[in-house]
Write a structure and sequence with these properties.
Layout lengths: L1 H57 L8 E5 L3 H7 L1 E12 L10 E12 L2 H6 L5 E11 L1 H8 L5 E5 L2 E10 L2 E13 L5 E10 L6 H13 L3 E2 L9 E8 L2 E12 L6
Antiparallel strand pairs: 1-2, 2-3, 3-4, 4-11, 5-6, 6-7, 7-8, 8-9, 10-11
C-alpha cells in the first residue's frame, strides 16, 4: 500500500508543476501584453503631438510642445477599432496675433472625445485624426489683461464670481481709488467684451462733472478682449472670473485635430 501511495503522489506532483508553470507563463505573457500596450500608447501620443504641433503652426499660432495623453484601456483594442475614447492635449503659452495685439493664453487644456484615427494614420503621420467633440479650457492671467487696459496702477481680480477692478484715478485734483466690477459677454463670433458700468470712488465729489469723469474712465477701460484664434476650431462659449485668472471655455464638433494629408 505504501508503494501505491508513492506512485499516486508522483503524478500529482507533476500535475502541480505543470499548473504552476502554466500560471507563470500566463503571468509573463500578461505582463508582456501590458508592456506592449504602454509602449504603443507612447508611440501614438508622440505621433499625435507632432501632428498637433503642425496644425497649430499652420494656423499661425504658437505654443510650447503639446503634451498628449490617450485615455481608455486597453489601448491596443482601440487601435484595432480605429476609435479612441479620449485624447487630452495640454498646451502652454498659446499665442496668436489679432491685429498685432492679442492676449496670450498661458494655459489651454483640450479634451477630445470619440476620436477616429486609423492605424495607418498613426503609423505614417498621413491622414486625418477627427474628434467628435472637443472641449477646451484656457486661463488668462489678470496681470496680462491689466496690461492690455494700460492704466497705471490698475489691478484686476475675482470678487464674488465677478471681474473686479481697483485703480488710482485723479478726479478734479484729488487722487481717488476707484473700485467696481465688469459685465462680461461673449458675442456670436466668440468676441469677449468687458464693460465696466458701475464704478465707485470713496470721497468722490458730489458734482456732476466728477461723476462724468468717473464714467469716462469706466468707458476707457471697457474693451473687447483680442483673443488669439484658438486651435482645433474652438469657439468661445463662456468666460468666468476665477481666483487664478479669467477662464475661457470653448468647444467644437467634428474637428480634425490634424490636417496632414500626405
Amino acid at each position: 500500500m505504501a508503494q501505491d501511495d508513492t506512485y499516486d503522489e508522483q503524478p500529482r506532483r507533476r500535475g502541480r508543476k505543470v499548473l504552476i508553470t502554466l500560471v507563470v507563463l500566463l503571468l509573463v505573457l500578461g505582463g508582456l501584453i501590458v508592456v506592449a500596450d504602454r509602449v504603443a500608447v507612447g508611440v501614438a501620443e508622440r505621433a499625435i503631438a507632432d501632428q498637433v504641433r503642425q496644425e497649430i503652426a499652420k494656423q499661425g499660432a504658437q505654443s510650447s510642445a503639446p503634451e498628449v495623453e490617450i485615455g481608455g484601456a486597453p489601448f491596443l483594442t482601440q487601435v484595432l477599432d480605429g476609435r479612441y475614447e479620449r485624447i487630452s492635449i495640454a498646451l502652454r503659452d498659446v499665442q496668436g496675433s489679432v491685429g498685432g495685439d492679442a492676449v496670450a493664453l498661458p494655459k489651454l487644456d483640450v479634451d477630445a472625445r470619440n476620436v477616429r484615427a486609423s492605424l495607418d494614420t498613426l503609423r505614417t503621420g498621413q491622414g486625418d485624426v477627427v474628434a467628435e467633440t472637443v472641449d477646451g479650457t484656457g486661463t488668462i492671467s489678470y496681470d496680462s489683461l491689466a496690461k492690455l487696459l494700460d492704466r497705471p496702477g490698475l489691478t484686476l481680480g475675482e470678487q464674488n464670481g465677478r471681474l473686479a477692478v481697483t485703480a488710482p484715478v485723479d478726479i478734479l485734483g484729488q487722487r481717488l481709488t476707484v473700485t467696481g466690477t465688469a459685465d462680461i459677454t461673449v458675442g456670436k463670433e466668440g468676441q469677449v467684451a468687458l464693460r465696466f458700468n458701475d464704478l465707485n470712488a470713496e470721497g468722490l465729489p458730489n458734482l456732476p462733472l466728477a461723476r462724468t469723469l468717473l464714467n469716462n474712465y469706466a468707458r476707457g477701460i471697457s474693451i473687447d478682449v483680442p483673443l488669439p484664434d484658438l486651435p482645433f476650431q474652438l469657439a468661445v462659449r463662456e468666460v468666468r472670473p476665477l481666483p487664478e485668472g479669467l477662464t475661457v471655455t470653448a468647444d467644437a464638433r467634428n474637428v480634425p485635430i490634424n490636417s496632414v494629408t500626405g
